[in-house]
Amino acid sequence: MTTQHENVLSIEQLDAFRIAFHEGAAEASTALGQWIDKPTRISFDVVEQLPLEEATRVLGSEGEPICFCVSQMTGRLTGQLILAFSDASGLALADVLLNQPRGTAGVWGEMETSAALETANILACAFLNSLYRAFPADPNAASELLPTPPRFSRDYAASLIEFAVMAQVIESDHVLVAQTEFQIDGDPVDWTLLFVPDAESMMTLREALRDSR
Amino acid sequence: MKGVQQLSSTISAVRMGDLAVSANNGVLRTLLGSCIGLALYDHTHKVGGLAHIVLPQSRDSGGPAGKFVDTAIPALCARMETLAGRSLKPTARIAGGANMFSTTVIQTIGTQNIEATVRLLGELRIPLLGRHCGGEKGRRMSLDSATGVITIEIVGSDPIEL
Description:
The structure holds two protein chains of two kinds. Chain A is built from six helices and seven strands; from the N terminus they run αβαββααββαββα. Chain A is an alpha+beta fold. In chain A, strands 1, 2, 3, 4, 5, 6 and 7 form a seven-stranded antiparallel beta sheet that branches. The radius of gyration of chain A is 17 Å and the shape is globular. Chain B is an alpha+beta fold. Chain B has a single domain, classed as CATH 3.30.1330.200. In chain B, the strands form two sheets. Chain B has a six-stranded mixed beta sheet with strand order 1-2-4-9-10-11, with no helix packed on it. In chain B, strands 3-6-5-7-8 form a five-stranded mixed beta sheet, with helices on one face. The chains are: A alpha+beta, B alpha+beta.
């Protein structure tokens, strides 16, 4: 087992990772813009290592139910990629994709859920493609970086984050969370894309970023 | 108690890896995924405690006392007895240990957390009176320290009393 100190990225490593994450989020944002046929851009992105007790606050109101689509990352990096959103903003997205007046979608039916899942899938693929280029593969290591098909659920925000960081908590009292928010058509939307690597991927990232110490 | 937040005059939130105690008033509340919520309560003296346990064993690795089963249970008992100013005979209820993402690692941790908690409660002769564990959904667990009532809430379901 590694020590707590070894599990924490340096400031320089965090900066280097922040650049790679920003590029990934930008590519995901472009893909989203093409998918919904509206101008989309990143409004804010954060990469931080949080103490355990603060990690559950990253999505704001911990006790409120939120919707989310979760993909597992497979290949060179493993962990979770999560698109989280409020009911209102998720259903608004469904209205856009189903080409119906805003406010038409009122509940999470099959079509609305499918729209959210497909959006999450497009974002995940674009984000991981960019991240793959940012961290060239070791010839001896797994070379792919792919998302599994996403799953849709509604749950407490804090419970979601707890599930996501669990595989890092085994090795450290700090957890790395990368977070991006979006603007669509000039308006902020209540969506968050979370990248949460597991403990094994934290080692991979530290190795890939070792020159940034 | 870095991981305890006062949500209102009567409700305190217990975060990952932390624990809190209360006597005869107020509600202790925690939001759980694969972690274990352990509620201890002494009905005679109306003293309760809630821990949000993350992993089964500390292995002397440091970290907050509430993070591990083997440190959280003794710490919670000690804090409750300090608050009461006397020895207590608490009973226990547990919740959590879900596996939302269906991953082997998390499933293993959740199961180990439950097993380690049940085992240590047995060794300490603390009766385990109820459990609400497993599944794929998160839980909100609340302990009312005036009554000892423990409520479990799951998104999309009616609250239940444990």
